[in-house]
Amino acid sequence: MSDRLHTLSGYFHEYQKSVAQPEEFWARIADSFHWKKRWSKVLQWNFEEPDVRWFVDGKLNITENIFEKNLYTLGDRPAIIWEPNESHEEVRTLTYRELFVEVCRFANALLSKGIGKGDRVIIYMPMVPEAAIAMLACARIGAIHSVVFAGFSSSSLADRIQDCQAKAILTADGNYRGSKKITVKGIVDEALEKVSVETVIVYRRTGQETFMQSGRDFWWNEVLEGQSEFHKAAEMDSEDLLFILYTSGSTGKPKGVVHTTGGYMVYTKYSFENVFQYCPGDVYWCTADIGWITGHSYIVYGPLLAGATTLMFEGIPTYPHPGRFWEVVEKHQVNVFYTAPTAIRALQAFGTEPIEKYNLSSLKVLGSVGEPINEEAWHWYHTHIGKGKCPIVDTWWQTETGGIMISPLAGITPTKPAYATLPLPGIQLSIVDADGKELHGNSVEGNLCINFPWPSMIRTTYGDHDRCKQTYFSTYKNKYFTGDGVKRDHDGYYRILGRVDDVINVSGHRLGTAEVENAINEHPKVIESAVVGYPHEVKGQGIYAYVICDMSNRSEENLIQEIKETVSKIIGPIAKPDKIQLVPGLPKTRSGKIMRRILRKIAEGSLDAMGDISTLLDPEVVEKIKAGRK
Ligand code: WTA
Questions:
Q1: Residues 21-62 pLDDT 10s
Q2: CA-CA distance, 147 to 243, in Å (whole number)?
């Protein structure tokens, strides 16, 4: 692995090279992959449009780089270890060879149902190996997958089916969540009352009674019958779409972030190997769901491209007991463990007793992702899980970046609690002030931008290129704007301060305040609403909704409950407001704009320092809201 960094001086050296000669830098890394046809140009770009192409004219299939390239050396190594919801249920292990056969068979099954190159396929599944098989089979035939987190409601699912004009849905009968058995296909059926697809393939997980529409719905095992164990990979262009993943922004409905084949492949493997310093034979466990980008890049593609053993966990951290994560670490001798601060904080609340029952000595590296990790949680993770000997990689990145951008390299970069530390070689960051002026040097704070393309960056927002341009490339000229605030300290280390736009991060899940407001406003008694985030001990941020309602014939309690249910139905339970305050009015400027700054302050509980409220149409409303604070 020539593209693997081993020392801090090596890191600084590579970083310099990657900035001085980016094309040479990336060409060298890309050369270690299998290309059916080599690229004619490493990079062609323009942030104005934006139009970014990596490894131009290169031809490849990402799954050949997982399977054919490695089968001789890795065939019998476990690719996926699956730990079910119930600890007594049987573990499933798929070697690289076995996984390859499953992917080929399912690829053939998809083709037999008329699904082919360029078709969009929605994957709405629990955390079972078949979800990864489904993604890889799509990639094998050149279909574009769009995984939708199985906690989203039928109406969120319908929106996504509609937006990408999906031809098929791959799903399951049900899902186990802790002690509960939840319907999955039932939600698909509800979505399909509003929109339609040609084919639905259903994996039997829970065995619960399931409606199947003849001619449209097929059982997974039945479509696999008689399928060949080999499929010749489709030849894809480097810039062909690999997948669409919907994510929330500050306005309107979630947008379909588009990732393409060649660059995503190169960057996910490169970042996986370098950040986690994965060694052959290690067991690697990322606790994310495949419905999020972390699951795409660091459960499926990155680890499998690197020939790693990736553990997939179906369950939840606290079922059947709060030591479940640690039980799994011991059981599978996990070496690298990657989770979210919200999970760490939730488990912290149970004390150290659940940890002490298990032997965690296999752990070498710990990771964190999804939201800022507070110092207290960092220390708890370091001391009680890592026993003071495992480096923590606090990895900053986004759905749009495709892979980890700022992070320590495990065991190489000296860490500092709550700091994501330094950018990976190839990543050119900048910090700008509100006017877009770049702030050079150390000890500065501002908005985080990226000045130069990287291979796994967003190419467009599906079906609406202008939205991509407006959201990411128009705020600051010739820069990609992340939406995050950041500080570069006296050592040049980066600390992410959180979103500076109207996006909130609830337990590591991204939600737009406008999206939650739209859902609240669907309730017939709601006149207007405003949603803000506030600091929450476990979730990082909680959702605080200020709502103006028509109160006639209704009790406050009932209305609040109904509004919560409405949001849950329209987006999903993750978007349910933690606090709803019914208010007589909202603080608006004379031009009608809601002053969210004030609402955020009240939600946070800083009731004294309201700042300048002289531009408000009705300053008195602020006092009334303060008085009724939840
Ligand atoms: C936040 C998740 C601080 C950030 C991979 C970003 C973080 C958003 C970190 C993207 C981190 C992610 N420290 N904040 N290590 N990682 N974030 O698209 O606000 O679900 O913009 O991608 O999460 O969330 P997304």
A1: 999 999 999 999 999 999 999 999 999 999 999 999 999 999
A2: 8
Question: What is the CATH number assigned to the segment(s) 8-473?
Answer: 3.40.50.12780
| Span from the CA of 494 to the centroid of ligand 1 (angstroms) | 14
> Mutation test of ligand 1: which of 371, 449, 501, 541 has the most ligand atoms closer than 8 Å to its C-beta?
371
Distance (angstroms) between ligand 1 centre and the Cα of 349 equals 23
User: Does residue 149 have a pLDDT over 80?
Assistant: yes
- Inter-residue contact 321 to 354 (CB < 8 Å): yes
The answer to whether 329 and 360 are in contact (CB under 8 A) is yes
CA of 99 from ligand 1 middle (Å) equals 31
How many Cβ atoms from other residues are within 10 Å of residue 555's Cβ?
9
Measured in Å, residue 533 CA sits from the centre of ligand 1 at 15
Amino acid 291: pLDDT? 97
Distance 253 CA to ligand 1 centre (A): 19
Q: Would you put residue 500 in left (φ > 0), alpha (ψ -120 to 50) or beta?
A: alpha
Ligand 1 contacts (CB < 6 A) are 247, 292-294, 368-372, 394-399, 420, 482-484, 496, 499, 505, 510
pLDDT at residue 511 tops 50: yes
Mean pLDDT of the chain: 96
Q: Are residues 212 and 42 in contact, defined by beta-carbon separation less than 8 angstroms?
A: no
pLDDT of 1 strictly over 50: no
Q: Which atom of ligand 1 is nearest to the CA of 503?
A: 19
- Both tokens of residue 113? 């149902």
Instruction: Give the residue-averaged pLDDT of 245-258.
Output: 90
Distance 221 CA to ligand 1 centre (A): 37
Q: Where are the domains of the chain?
A: 8-473, 503-627
- Closest C-alpha to 200, from 297, 99, 253, 123: 123
Atom 4, ligand 1: residue with shortest CA distance: 371
Tell me the fold of 503-627: GMP Synthetase; Chain A, domain 3 (3.30.300)
Pick from 158, 389, 379: nearest CA to 254? 158
Ligand 1 centre distance from Cα of residue 369 (Å) = 7
**Which of the listed residues 505, 511, 515, 574 should we mutate to test ligand 1's pocket, taking the one with most ligand atoms within 8 A of CB?**
505
Closest C-alpha among 460, 436, 456 to residue 448: 436
Identify the residue whose tokens are 């992917």.
103
| pTM to 2 decimal places | 0.96
Atom of ligand 1 nearest to the CA of 395: 15
Ligand 1 atom closest to 372 (CA)? 3
Enclosing H/E stretch for 169: strand 168-172
Residue 370 Cα to ligand 1 middle (Å)? 4
Name the packing angle between helices 22-30 and 8-20 (round to 10°): 120
Confidence of residue 529 (pLDDT cuts 50, 70, 90): very high
Give one DSSP letter per residue of 320-382, joined into a string.
Answer: S-TTHHHHHHHHHT-SEEEE-HHHHHHHHTT-SHHHHTS--TT--EEEEESSPPPHHHHHHII
